[in-house]
Amino acid sequence: MRPFGDSKADQDKKLFVGGLNPKTDENSLKSYYEQWGEIIDVVVMKDPRSQKSRGFGFVTYKDASSVDAAQNNRPHSLDGKEVDSKRAMPREETSPEVHAAVRKIFVGALRKDVTSEDLNDYFSQYGNVVDAQIVMAKDTNTSRGFAFVTFDDTDAVDKVILGRPHTIKDSKADVRKALSREEMNKMRSKPAPVRAEYNGDGWNDHTNGGFQQQPWDQGYNQPSRQQQPYAYNGAGYGYGGYEASSSAGAWPNTADGFGNYQQQSYGGGPMRTAPTAPSYSRPAPYTGNGWQQR
């Protein structure tokens, strides 16, 4: 297998596969997923001490269309076990909600003249939109500058996130996965996040304090201690008090840290400040993707 290419350029070619049978190895993983296209790299994550599978892996295709084909043919069954596949998110994505499996997105910093039809037209390129609602001010019945868009599949939402930044009516929009307060609370109850990276000698798992032995399906949806949801009253979502200017140039500036953005090399929209990552001889390390048992 050849080394990974540039993480930004190749990110839409990578697939995370969770819930693997313990006996599934890289050969069987490759053999199964190559039915949808040529694979240039495959890895099954292993415990560094026991060398046993941790139950998840990554597949990198030569072409992004192969990821679409694989995702359009779910569910997948490998070695007698149904697995959970989703698009791999780049390491640079540090917001906790990015790994959640949801069908709804939050769209902020909208111009006041953006309509539900505009949102439907724009986001239909990523999947089937079943609902698009602009949040209106009760007293004036005018747009509050943000909205919610719902798809029929979680994969469409992942495509939207990987497609950031988004520009709607010539103005950059703030697009994130929309999590209810209940979903946010579930994320807080999970263990500390685990990150999978390649250091040139092999794949390692890291947490804030170094290596920790944890199951693959835990810890990927944990918010930071400073990160609290917006209080959008009336819909049960944590995005309230969000008011974009008519020019749509203002990001929310709140004490919870969501307003602290910086532009990073990955074209994935606004992101919270992340620690500087060490250099790796093999680019495009992956973060873990939160897998939820169906």
UniProtKB/TrEMBL annotation:
Keywords: Repeat, RNA-binding. GO terms for cellular component: catalytic step 2 spliceosome. The keyword Repeat applies. It holds the Pfam family RRM_1. It comes from the Eukaryota. Residues 1-15, 76-95 have a biased composition (Basic and acidic residues). SMART domains: RRM. One of its GO terms (molecular function) is mRNA 3'-UTR binding. Residues 1-26, 69-95, 183-232, 253-294 are annotated as: Disordered. The keyword Heme does not apply. PROSITE patterns: RRM. Residues 205-229 have a biased composition (Polar residues). InterPro entries: Nucleotide-bd_a/b_plait_sf, RBD_domain_sf, RRM_dom. One of its GO terms (biological process) is mRNA splicing, via spliceosome. This is Heterogeneous nuclear ribonucleoprotein A1. It comes from Trichobilharzia regenti (Nasal bird schistosome). The lineage of its organism: Eukaryota, Metazoa, Spiralia, Lophotrochozoa, Platyhelminthes.
